[in-house]
Amino acid sequence: MTFIKKAASVAVAATLAASGAMADGHAETKLRIQTHYAPETVSGKLAAQYVEDIQTMSGGAIEVEMFYSSSVVKSVETFDAAATGILDCDMTGGGYQTGKNSAFQFVGDIMGGYETPYQQLSWLYFGGGREAAAPLYNKYGMELIGWWVYGQESFASSKPIEKVADFKDWKFRSPPGMETKIFEKLGASPIVMDFTEIFTALETGIIDGADASGLANNVGLGLYDIVKYANFPGFHSMPSDHLACNKAVFDAMPEAHQAIMKVAMEALALRTALTFEKKNAEAAAQLRADGVTLSQWAPEELQKFRDAAQATWPEFADTPEAKALVDAHLSYLTQLGLVSK
């Protein structure tokens, strides 16, 4: 309760700046948004397009100050920075907040579940996902605006990663949460570190590999300038990047601005999925030409990973919010035929 009261009091002051009245009576919204993506990555450019879209659709009445590469606070701190008024919105992902509540794992990256971004997005909008996620975000003074899912991630590695056995003693950068548990079970040594530290850690040999992003984003980060192995198509992780805003700030926005932000997120979601279909294929072709080895996993090896991932879900369903989200996922995954009861 202390955190929520603090967030609410700060947000009231922030609201005065975030939503005021212009001289002509037309509402104006000013937002400070942070993303962990660098502006030169594919996702960074897509985030910039989202900002341009909402500013254009509002006729300039929504103004955004965008911060890239987690330049204000660390990636994992972005959510709280928005909740307490240092920022207004968090454009990273729920997975960074698993230490706060394990339920965030299941809005951040369920792992071993959906096969395509379209399936995962359909859960959010049509499978009960938004309804299950809203109380979780609201509990911490935030409002979930929407998701953008770029598809399955690929590893960057200094050695071949072709099968589950290759994970043994493999030191790699991992985001926090359930992923560390899954890969420990498979013999790897996950090291949690901020997204912005990956390049240097690979360059200095602190880690052997990294779970960073999709293939095209990894290229944008320069990871394959350092290490020469990857897997493609990806399979292990399909994070849902989110846009979540301080609830008091968002609630005080004009209804038209709220709608613009939500509809623009749906456009961003589709644009992101389609863009990465193309960009990842282009990146794969270029990497092969540049001498990077790309491994495609056999079905039986993929199943080994899915079995380990799905066996780990119950371990993280340890709060009411987490259980509600796991139940919603399992119900929808069963409808899609991706898991069986």
Report on this model:
This protein is an alpha/beta fold and 341 residues long. The chain folds into 2 domains: 2-150 and 238-278, D-Maltodextrin-Binding Protein, domain 2, CATH 3.40.190; 154-237 and 287-315, 3-Layer(aba) Sandwich (D-Maltodextrin-Binding Protein, domain 2). It has 13 helices and 12 strands. It has helices spanning 2-18, 42-57, 78-83, 105-108, 117-126, 129-139, 178-185, 198-204, 215-221, 247-252, 255-289, 299-316, 320-336; strands spanning 19-21, 27-34, 62-67, 89-90, 142-148, 154-157, 171-174, 189-192, 209-213, 229-231, 241-246, 293-295. Helix 9 (215-221) packs across helix 11. The model is unreliable at 1-23 (pLDDT under 50).
Query: Beta-sheet strand percentage?
Result: 15-25%
**What kind of oligomer do you see?**
single chain
How many beta-strand segments?
12
Provide the low-confidence segments as ranges: 1-23
CATH topology of the largest domain: D-Maltodextrin-Binding Protein, domain 2
CATH class of the largest domain: Alpha Beta
Radius of gyration: 20 Å
How many domains make up the coordinates?
2
- Helix fraction by DSSP (H/I, runs of at least 4): 40-55%
CATH architecture of the largest domain: 3-Layer(aba) Sandwich
User: Which sequence of SSEs, written as H and E, runs from N to C?
Assistant: HEEHEHEHHHEEEHEHEHEEHHEHH
Largest sheet: 6 strands, mixed
Class inferred from helices and paired strands: alpha/beta
- Helix count? 13
The CATH superfamily title of the largest domain: Bacterial extracellular solute-binding protein, family 7
Average pLDDT confidence is 90
For the record, give the distance between the C-alpha atoms at the N and C termini, rounded to a whole number: 38 Å
What is the molecular shape? globular
